[in-house]
Design goal:
Growth Hormone, Chain: A, mainly alpha
Length: 431
């Protein structure tokens, strides 16, 4: 690490390290709340704005697609900034780009320009990428006994914004009307404010930088004797190839996200085909989001107590139960809802345990880029799943879609069982 930190980590006393870690986690939680609110607000109205600009329902899905694409596009560049200069510049830049994107969306909507609107949504994806990368910063100074917990708490903080954001449409509409903008742009104003505030808070409060302190202090997060990694955007690929546990972590994260997106994307369509009221569909998706985030601290605690690989394997079991229940539910709204809650919980198991395992499976030097690569593949998996889910639903029905999604758990199960067999199913550090 060539950039000096504001506080050298060498010989850092445990009490001091623990104090810095608490400050880091609290800062990250705060930025996740305001940034998550920005994301939730835009997700609530992005498709509606796209429909109004084009006059077509067919184009409305492009809003979310562009955000997902943007999250994938910015994952590696933001990770590269973190690798060169630390978490603080990388996260602050990502939030700032998201705020700029929201401003572009507002201007494009007022001018009724669809192409710039889509470009703005891609930039908003930088905010989504930042929201994901914040969880990695929570692991930089964490000890092995609390790494899963600290990471999961930062993931949990997203719940606040994810729940509040979509409920700001009414308030946002009044704010937009007061400044002479279309009512649908009210939540976009909150998106801009949330992302910009996230950038400011990160820049001011994330000091000293946890990645720089951790790297200089030898926290033992990564593999200290690994060979140096070239500083290129995909430099982490070589190190992942040398670490079977890193491969398992990335496959687990990507597969869990792919299963979740494939089923969740088409659930509202399936329910509407069976005559479900919009309020019921909304409640189902809200409970699904709660399953994703609300129980993540429990998942983190289990990850620290039972081991990374066992919890990752258990997550695949939860996902399989979810698709089995949802896929055979038919028009039973309660069963579909239960399946979606379990789908969110299985995603949480995969994300928290996989991210924790990845953080301690590669060297300190390669870790930020490997984490960026993981987020890139995760978002590409989600985007691909969302793109093909409609086709699969049309051809094979909702049950066939769930069966298709279940197939993505198989490589994770094989790799996890192999890892447990190789290490005897040991404890936290072994598994």
């Amino acid at each position: 690490m060539t950039v000096p930190s504001t506080l050298s980590g060498r010989g850092l006393p445990e009490v001091r390290r623990a104090r810095l870690q608490r400050r880091t986690v609290l800062t990250l939680m705060l930025t996740q709340v305001v940034g998550g609110l920005g994301m939730g607000a835009m997700l609530a109205v992005g498709a509606l704005i796209a429909r109004d600009l084009t006059g077509s329902d067919a184009w409305s899905g492009m809003a979310t697609t562009m955000i997902t694409l943007g999250a994938a596009v910015f994952a590696l560049p933001l990770a590269s900034v973190a690798a060169r200069r630390g978490r603080r510049p990388g996260l602050a830049l990502g939030w700032a780009l998201g705020g700029a994107g929201s401003s572009v969306v507002i201007a494009a909507t007022v001018l009724e320009w669809f192409a710039p609107f889509l470009a703005g949504m891609v930039l908003i994806g930088a905010g989504t990428a930042t929201n994901l990368q914040a969880r990695h910063a929570a692991a930089d100074l964490a000890g092995p006994d609390t790494r899963g917990r600290d990471l999961s708490i930062v993931v949990w903080a997203t719940t606040v914004g994810a729940v509040l954001g979509p409920n700001l449409i009414g308030v946002g509409g009044r704010v937009a009307a007061a400044v002479g903008l279309p009512e649908l742009l009210g939540p976009a104003l909150f998106t801009t404010a949330g992302f910009v505030l996230g950038a400011v808070l990160t820049f001011l409060l994330l000091r000293p930088d946890p990645l720089l302190v951790g790297a200089e202090g030898g926290t033992g997060v990564g593999v200290p004797d690994a060979a140096p990694v070239r500083r290129s955007p995909l430099a982490g690929l070589a190190e992942v190839g040398r670490s079977p546990r890193a491969v398992l972590a990335i496959v687990g994260i990507v597969a869990s996200h792919t299963v979740m997106v494939a089923v969740m994307t088409m659930t509202p369509v399936h329910m509407s085909h069976h005559g479900a009221a919009l309020t019921v569909v909304g409640l189902t998706i809200s409970l699904h989001i709660a399953g994703m985030y609300a129980l993540s601290p429990l998942v983190g605690w289990l990850t620290d107590r039972l081991g990374r690989v066992p919890v990752l394997l258990a997550g695949q079991g939860v996902l399989l139960a979810a698709v089995a229940i949802a896929g055979t539910a038919g028009d039973d709204e309660a069963r579909v809802t239960l399946g979606l809650v379990l789908l969110g919980l299985g995603w949480s198991f995969g994300l928290v345990s996989g991210s924790t395992l990845l953080a301690e499976s590669v060297s300190d030097e390669a870790r930020p880029r490997v984490q960026g690569l993981s987020d890139l593949l995760m978002n590409l998996g989600g985007a691909s799943a969302g793109a093909v889910s409609g086709v699969v639903l049309t051809q094979a029905g909702f049950g066939g879609l769930n069966l298709f999604a279940a197939l993505f758990t198989l490589p994770v199960v094989v790799l996890a069982v192999r890892a447990l067999a190789a290490r005897g199913g040991g404890g936290v550090t072994a598994a």
